[in-house]
Design goal:
By secondary structure, the protein is of the alpha+beta class. The protein contains 8 helices and 35 strands. The two termini are 46 Å apart. Bound molecules: adenosine-5'-triphosphate (ATP) and magnesium ion.
Length: 504
């Protein structure tokens, strides 16, 4: 169990690779015995952070402390830390026992010996065969493999091999176990089983686990503390319940669990307007402030048409075992709701959203963020009543688009992303507004024009309520209609779910 003692303290750590900032401003205190998970999309700096803790990578600046001592410049082998990687590098020619014993056989420990002159001296000596035997068997017991000690590792299942890899780490009795997507190579069923087992192991061992995953469900199931990261920066640190129930921004809300996210504005004390309706709420924000409103699907209540705060039409439904998940259209906005009741498609229903189901977040406005957009057949995204051309090759390293419009991996695997859901992000200086409404792909109406120190932050709203925010030196008048232009290369995409779902 976790104690109050801080075992690892990362203090304002930054890592640059040739001018590219992979991790920035990273401060985190981890208590002894905690199960801490670094969670975030691909490329957000999880592995880099873990490698700095392990000592395989040096921070460009900042400090890493272990139990109060600065270890920033300590080499990996001097740190009481062991790492389990996604691809378990076992020795294929050795059996289970020898794989686990391998490191121990090489290890030398200070041992007190008596010289022929009767003097006591400390010498570095190998461990005795009996000690090694005891240690290996104990480690194999913890990972539940004691019966397979003589098996050739090549004959083991993926899950069993990963357990050997874990045994090989814990046999060294590290104070901290680092795990970098250790279950990534396993199939779903095995992954679920191993999640439970890892959690059990954590309990049994009582040591600190620092775990890396991009799977939010895995993070929620296993962790004491989740650190949500994006672009090398920590977004939120909290318990699974905290980050789920009280996400600090729209990114976290979208990344953890499923969310409905809307643009809203505070139109009175404790009342917020979104989806064309004014709802009472619990969060107090300044009047007129533009906010992100997050509503979890399980908090949306479907009622009779006449009894709802708003009216919607059921567009789609999926049976999820215990409940149905409905996609309901409210005007041009979609709302995802869960209900155990079976409603027919096309039915008009009422929707109620309670005060405590409405989570209001200050807009961070560091970029334009559009979650859950659909990719069209022509490799565009649907946004603001129109489509924008995008570069899908950014979803897969070293890929290209073939003549038929398929995304093709380096190895030749084809993907059809038609209908896929993506999040799009566009920096504030990469959208252009023009007085000429024919100028870009979309049009919008200027709704806000705020002077921030040395520039204006201007917001244009499209007809379907999508906001486009820009930083500019120019002045726009509220109420003006502008053309909106976004270059394909400036739309940063992340895929919701795994790309393997789109293989053809
Ligand atoms: N040695 C390196 N040289 C240059 N860039 C690097 C190096 N290592 C990592 N990066 C870059 O730093 C960023 C963060 O990488 P990192 O491996 O930490 O991401 P991650 O969160 O672990 O992603 P994934 O979920 O895909 O494993 C990426 O853009 C990556 O390309
Ligand atoms: Mg990684």
């Amino acid at each position: 169990m976790a104690s109050d003692e801080v075992i690892i303290n990362l203090d304002n750590v930054r890592k640059e690779f040739d001018g590219y900032v992979a991790v920035e401003n990273f401060s985190l205190r981890i208590q002894k015995g905690q199960f801490v998970t670094l969670l975030g999309p691909s490329g957000c700096g999880k592995t880099t952070t873990l490698r700095m803790i392990a000592g395989f990578e040096m921070p460009t600046s900042g400090k890493i402390m272990l139990s109060g001592q600065d270890i920033t410049n300590l080499p990996p082998y001097k740190r009481p830390v062991n790492t389990v990687f996604q691809r378990y590098a076992l020795f294929p020619h050795l059996d289970v026992y020898d794989n686990v014993a391998f490191g121990l056989k090489l290890k030398k420990v200070p041992t007190e010996v008596t010289t022929i002159f009767g003097k006591k001296k400390t010498k570095m000596k190998h461990l005795s065969a009996q000690t090694i035997d005891e240690m290996v068997l104990k480690a194999l017991q913890i990972v539940d493999l004691e019966e397979l000690e003589d098996r050739d590792v090549a004959t083991l299942s993926g899950g069993q091999q990963q357990r050997v890899a874990i045994a090989r780490c814990i046999v060294n009795k590290p104070e901290i176990l680092l795990l970098d997507e250790p279950l990534g190579a396993l199939d779903l069923k095995m992954r679920k089983d191993m999640q439970i087992e890892l959690k059990e192991m954590h309990k049994k061992l009582g040591i600190t686990f620092i775990y890396v995953t991009h799977d939010q469900e895995e993070a929620l199931t296993m962790s004491d503390v989740i650190v949500v990261m994006k672009d090398g920066v920590i977004q939120q640190i909290g318990s699974p319940i905290d980050v789920y129930n009280e996400p600090v921004n729209a990114f976290v809300a979208d990344f953890i669990g499923e969310s409905n996210i809307y643009n809203g504005s505070m139109i009175d004390k404790l009342s917020v307007r979104f989806l064309g309706h004014t709802f009472p709420c619990l969060d107090d924000f300044p009047l007129g402030e533009m906010v992100d409103v997050v509503v979890r699907p399980e908090d949306v209540e479907i009622v009779e048409k006449a009894k709802g705060d708003i009216v919607g039409k059921i567009e789609n439904k999926i049976f999820k075992g215990v409940h149905y998940e409905y996609s309901i259209m409210v005007g041009k906005n979609e709302i995802i709701a869960q209900s155990t009741k079976d409603y027919p498609l096309e039915q008009e229903i009422g929707i109620c959203i309670g005060k405590d189901a409405i989570h209001i977040m200050k807009k961070t406005n560091t970029s334009n963020f559009y979650p859950g957009l659909t990719v069209t057949k022509k490799n565009e995204i649907e946004l603001a009543d129109t489509t924008f051309e995008v570069d899908l090759t950014q979803l897969l390293k070293d890929s290209h688009i073939d003549d038929d419009g398929y995304l093709v991996s380096k190895k030749g695997q084809k993907y059809d992303l038609t209908g896929a859901k993506v999040n799009a992000e566009i920096p504030l200086d990469k959208i252009e507004f023009s007085d000429d409404t024919e100028f870009g792909q979309a049009t919008g109406k200027i709704v806000s024009n705020i002077y921030i120190g040395d520039h204006y932050q201007v917001v244009a709203k499209s007809e379907d309520d999508e906001d486009f925010i820009i930083d500019t030196q120019y002045v726009y008048n509220v109420g003006d209609i502008v053309g909106i232009k976004i270059d394909k290369k400036d739309i940063k995409l992340t895929l919701k779910g795994d790309i393997s779902e789109y293989e053809v």
